[in-house]
Structure formats: structure tokens, C-alpha cells
Amino acid sequence: MKRSPVPSSNKAPKGPVLRRINRCRKALVWPCVALCLGLTGFQAMAQDWVMGFAEDEAPVSDGGPDEARGIIPELTAELFDSLPGQSVTMTAGPWVRIQRSVETGQIDGFVTYPSSERKTYALFSNTPLFHMDFGFLIYRRDHPQRQRIEQARSFEDLQGLTFIGQQGAEWERDNIPATLDTVLLGHTETMMHMLVRRQTGDFMVMPAEQAVHIAKQLGYEHQIAIEPVRFIPNASIPFHVGIRSDHPEAHEMLTRMDNVLRSGDYRQVAEQLLTEYREAQTD
After folding, report:
1. What share of the chain in percent tops pLDDT 70?
2. Is the separation of the CB atoms in 107 and 50 below 8 Å?
3. How far out from the chain centre does Cα 226 lie?
């Protein structure tokens, strides 16, 4: 999917302008040549960026090699729409592979939590694209220790239960204690199946809107329970734009992105989009 903003000021002249050119053909030959050269130069300077996103994590991000959709891709498209002369190609795939593709230079960037490991191969915007609230425990309604889960005030209260996590999710690695019994899986749908159908794990940590969306997709919406908690460190996760550090235009591009991300216009559009997604979860 490409988003290539075209400034309205670059439209070809019409009507009265063309009549003036016809009346003054000789006088305007060189200015027209200069204009054409200028437009050619503008097109040559246009930059197409390839950004990667996780698949199978709707409504946050989803899609395939030829497209990406969801909250993060749509916000990314809005960001690039505000950057004249820039376009973006968005692709989705397994999150571990997407991260590796940025690290090895196969794609230009991603939007994610700027962990210490990711900072070894990518530079990040100072301003987040958006924040996601991970302060929720997801578990089965019929769990025999449901009361214990709902009354937990720390991860210590959950010792002995099995946490279902996601491979490559560095936020979990940084914020979920390694002392918990843990099962790591590749996709969020697989995690939900493991929790509800196979009952191999006891709870997950996930944004509420994401858990509800996945449960509805799989027919589990009446089988899961969601408990908001306040003991998870860094539960409000900032998602920043990351560009591979060896990209020659990384610093300049991130500076331009920060200017857009701090603007009132972008924040208004982003809040409207997020509101639409929240409302969709309660339909």
C-alpha cells in the first residue's frame, strides 16, 4: 500500500494560464523549460520508505506482504501524508522477521517500543506515534483461580500461574518478571487459543481492545475476562517510529516526523482514528 501525498500547488496550469502561454510563446520558452526541470528535480528527490508491521495483531496491526492495516499502519499513513515529497510502502509479516528485516537493511523502519536492543540498530523519533495501554490481565472466565487473578496486586501474587507471552515482544521481556512460568508463542491468535481452548496457560498481558478483537474473531468473546491492574510497570507503552540507523536520511527524516507528531493537526487526526477503533470494539 502506497501513500504518496501530492501538494496541490504542483498541479499543471490550466485555463487562463495556458492562454497567456499561447500569447507569449516565445517569451516563455525558457521559463517553461526551467519549470519542467524543477518538477523533474522534485520528483527525483521524492523518497519512498518501506515500513514493516506485525501481522495477525489486529486491531493494532495486521495484513500481509502487499498491505498493512490497523491502528499503527493507519497512523503511519497519516504521518507520511503530512510529509511532502515522501511516500510509504507498508508491509506486514511475522514480527520477529520484520525486526530482523530492519536490522539487516531489507526495509527502512517500523513502529515499536524503543527497547535497548532495538536501539542498537535503529534510531527513533523523540515523539511517540501513539501510546498503548497494556495494563490488563486477560484470562478465562471459568478459571479455577479467577478470584486470585482478580485480586492480584503484584506479579508476586501470580507466582505459580503460567504467563502466555509473545516471541520477540521486548516490552514483555523488560516488564514481565522472568520468575513467572512462561510460554512464548509467535502470534496473538495462537496465544488466545492456548489460553481458552487448550488451557495450557493461565493469563496474558494485552491491551483490552486487542484482546476483545481477537476473542470476537475466534468466537471466544464470552469466555474471556479482563481485569485492569496498576502494578504492571510502564503499562502505557509509547510506540515510536524507528528507522534503521545506517539509513543516510534517518536523522533528517526523524526530525521532520517529530515536527508532524507534535503538531495539533496530527494529534487531532490520531485521536479521531483511535476513537473510531475504540467505538468499534463496543459495537
Report:
1. 82
2. yes
3. 23
